[in-house]
Amino acid sequence: MTMLYKAKAPMRIGFFGGGTDVSPYPEEYGGKVLNCTIDKYVRCMLRPTGRPGITIRSLDLQTITQTVAGRTWTGNLPLPEAVLNAHPEIDGIEIVMFSDVPPGSGLGSSSALVVAMLKVLDAAFELNLTPHELAKLAYRIERVDLGIAGGWQDQYAAVFGGMNVYHFGAGDAIVEPVMADEAAILELESCLVIGFIGDRQMLTRNVVNDQVRRMREGDTLRYHHETKALVDEAVKLLRAARIPDFGRLLHEAWEIKKAFSPHIAPPLVEEVYAIARRHGAWGGKLSGAGGGGFMCFCCPFERRLELEQALGEAGVRVRPFSFTRSGVHAWKAQP
Fewer CB within a 10 Å sphere, N or C end of the chain? Predict the structure, then answer.
């Protein structure tokens, strides 16, 4: 009986240090990011077909791409196609996938897709990739092969999972788990609200490129240093279970982040943020490079429903979530 292979890779909420993982900053100064994975996944299934060619089906995008001998793609799904182009020896399969959130989420869904696909290929064809090799390959496919602007944190979060500080240097990464009391992590989770304000996919490349240009020219370099310095402070607050202060630090980080580029916080983002602050949020931020996608807010537990209602009335699609401790997983299943 032919086995099926499945994988799922989590997305993440980035709290502090975002942008310091985007080249050339980590190579020149060392990047540092605090994030945590959540129970929103990209899910993949691989089915051997026993015939030449590859078919990829995206259920949520309702898109199919196919290849025949020689890897001539139809070009409908560039990310999955690029993953398979990195493994030209693989053939005779069908891959089916979908995401728990819309494209352009800012939660790292593109990287989670690449990581999930690599993991399911690893399981089916025994590629024997280590976690660091998997994360580096995912980065190369997105940032080098496809030229998609962005940093390192999304790939590493999808692979390793949990609440971690990631240290990025010249091609190297150190994963430092945040050894906080579980009650502190649960308390933070209970005070967080996330919601989707709109697709940012078309803006991402311009936002990131503008941030890099301004940093190279020296206009915003000090803001990168400042946001990196907040990572250690945030970890101390989390370990001390000082969640209100953690939320207020998010506000400080958001004000610094907006100085990276004027494209980060368009009027809609500023409007939603102001609504959240009026309804109890200590602080918050966009999750991702900027422009749109998901926003995250930290508020007192007793005002959470009030905040969710206000965001919903403003057109924000609030989504329940929980933190996760694990990164990408793959397994076998019977058809």
Answer: N
- pLDDT value of residue 64: 80
pLDDT tens digit sequence for 207-240 = 677 777 777 766 788 888 999 999 999 999 999 9
What domains appear along the chain, each with residue ranges and CATH number? 4-179 (3.30.230.10), 182-319 (3.30.70.890)
Kindly list the catalytic residues. Answer: 154
Grade residue 201 by pLDDT with cuts at 50, 70 and 90.
Answer: very low
User: What is the phi/psi pair of residue 213, to 5°?
Assistant: -60, -45
> Measuring CA to CA, how many Å separate 248 from each of 16, 280, 333?
12, 11, 46
Distance CA 313, CA 308 (A): 9
pLDDT digits (tens, 9 = 90+) for 269-327: 999 999 999 999 999 998 876 777 899 999 999 999 999 999 999 999 999 999 999 99
Residue 203 CA to its chain's centroid (Å): 16
Q: Cβ distance 294 to 105 under 8 Å? A: yes
- 132-150 exposure pattern, b = at least 16 Cβ within 10 A, e = fewer: eebbbbbbebbbeebebbb
Locus of tokens 């997983």: 329
Q: Which amino acid is at 170?
A: A
* Residue 275: Cβ-neighbour burial (10 angstroms; 0-12, 13-18, 19+): middle
Confidence of residue 204 (pLDDT cuts 50, 70, 90): low
Q: How far apart are CA 37 and CA 297, in angstroms?
A: 16
pLDDT at 257 over 50: yes
Closest CA to 15 of 139, 178, 137: 178
DSSP alpha helix (H) spans, 149-200? 153-160, 182-190
Q: What percentage of residues in the chain have a pLDDT greater than 70? A: 95
Strand partners, 13: 36
Ramachandran angles phi, psi of 260, nearest 5°:
-65, -40
Q: Dihedral through CA 258, CA 260, CA 264, CA 265, nearest 10? A: 20
